[in-house]
Amino acid sequence: MALKNISTVTELRSSLTVEASTIVLFMAAILSFASPSYFSSPSRKYPKPPLRIPLFTSLPLPSSSPTSSPGLASLFPVRNETTLSSSSTPIQALTEEAVDSSALASSSKLVLVVGGTGGVGQLVVASLLKRNIKSRLLLRDLEKATRLFGKQDEDSLQVVKGDTRNAEDLDPSIFEGVTHVICCTGTTAFPSKRWSGENTPDKVDWEGVKNLISALPSSVKRVVLVSSVGVTKSNELPWSIMNLFGVLKYKKMGEDFLRESGLPFTIIRPGRLTDGPYTSYDLNTLLKATAGERRAVVIGQGDKLVGEVSRLVVAEACIQALDIEFTQGKAYEINSVKGDGPGSDPQKWRELFKVAESK
Q1: What would you measure as the largest C-alpha separation in the chain, in angstroms?
Q2: ω into 201 cis (within 30 of 0)
Q3: pLDDT at position 42, please?
Q4: Residues in the chain with pLDDT < 70?
Q5: CA 20 to 30 Å from 163, out of 129, 211, 347, 350?
Q6: Residue 3, phi then psi, degrees to nearest 5
Q7: How far, in Å, CA of 328 to CA of 253, rounded?
């Protein structure tokens, strides 16, 4: 009888997986091809400023990630920000992007970037370097930093070894002098080879975030955590499918722990990620990456947005949030749509975040 029950459970689980896969593919098609205006409020468009210094010039970028598979994990806005590809794919030239000259000024910040070799994190690091903002990279594998960012002066980029999944790995010396933190860690929503070595949602999105927040000194001025849309709706379709293995639940637990920590924070919840990940590219290539036509930015609150967002937009939002005082203690959802966007203009980003609060 026991063997029969086990067999029945196995068959039911297999059936559920097949049905869930079908529903996921259906919902992904809706999310990918529906008009952005159907899901979100109209974006604010800006004329190009007269004086801008080119930063992101035309660049051939991969049309898709060489490590991505057509499976469930690639269809939803939960990131795998911990893998490093060793190959590249066919490329296409995209449009020019620029950065305001004010963004290139040196800074007294020391920004700790966690998950800095992943799809969003590497763009954060590259942008901080271009802005002359000193950063410290917390990594499990130090060689990844060298392959991505080359040899950097310690006055620009420091690399320290540590694993947020292991609290004992987070020596207090790692956080000495840190003024700001950007956490971009993540893994796949569904079981994959990327889960090997305890790289599962409970370990990365919950225990890792909890350990990191617990280890941070109270002197930190801002913690920016990259999470996901849908974390407050994990029991509703389509999010309940995405949450079959708990990824949204664990991300929400990480958010809540940060809220209750007493540290000043901002939470960025991206939609389905596009553009990249460029995890086989070097620093010079990263600095030329563009968001193509999807440069206009839509920011919301209340976990209402559904759509896509460029990884470059997410990285820029993280950096901008460090200095926008009224974003402290709040969570924002973010999408990107066709049109001209704010680039790296601080005032335009302030307006976008402010508009989100007035909706």
Answers
A1: 77
A2: no
A3: 42
A4: 1-106, 276-292
A5: 129
A6: -65, -40
A7: 19
> Does residue 19 sit within a domain?
no
Question: The CATH number of the domain where 267 resides is what?
Answer: 3.40.50.720
What is the tally of structural domains in the chain? Answer: 1
Angle formed at CA 180 by CA 321 and CA 341, multiple of 5 degrees: 25
* CA angle in degrees (0–180, nearest 5) for 186-187-188: 140
Does any domain span residue 122?
A: yes
Helix, strand, coil shares, percent, the chain, to 5:
40, 20, 45
Is residue 279 within 8 A of residue 83, CB to CB? The reply is yes
Range of the domain at 345: 34-358
Question: 274-301 burial by CB neighbour count: b if 16+ within 10 A, else e?
Answer: bbbbbbbbebebbbbbbbbebbbbbbbb
Which of these, 161, 160, 159, 152, lies nearest to 132 by C-alpha position?
Answer: 152
In a domain, 296, yes or no: yes
- What value, to the nearest 5°, has the Cα angle with vertex 274 and ends 273 and 279? 90
Q: Tell me, what's the pLDDT at 285?
A: 57
Residue 224 near residue 183, CB atoms below 8 Å: yes
Looking at residue 315, its pLDDT comes to 96
The H-assigned helical ranges of 222-331 are 239-242, 247-260, 283-286, 311-321
Asked whether 247 and 205 are in contact (CB, 8 A), the reply is yes
> Is the pTM value of this prediction over 0.85?
no
Q: Per the domain annotation, does 27 fall within a domain?
A: no
Name all contacts of 137-145 with Cβ < 8 Å and 24+ positions apart: 137/113, 138/112, 138/113, 138/114, 138/162, 138/164, 138/174, 140/82, 141/84, 141/117, 144/84, 144/117, 145/116, 145/117
Helix ranges (DSSP H) in the chain: 2-33, 36-39, 121-130, 142-149, 201, 209-215, 239-242, 247-260, 283-286, 311-321, 346-358
Contact 23, 241 (CB under 8 A): yes
C-beta neighbour count of 34 within 10 angstroms = 12
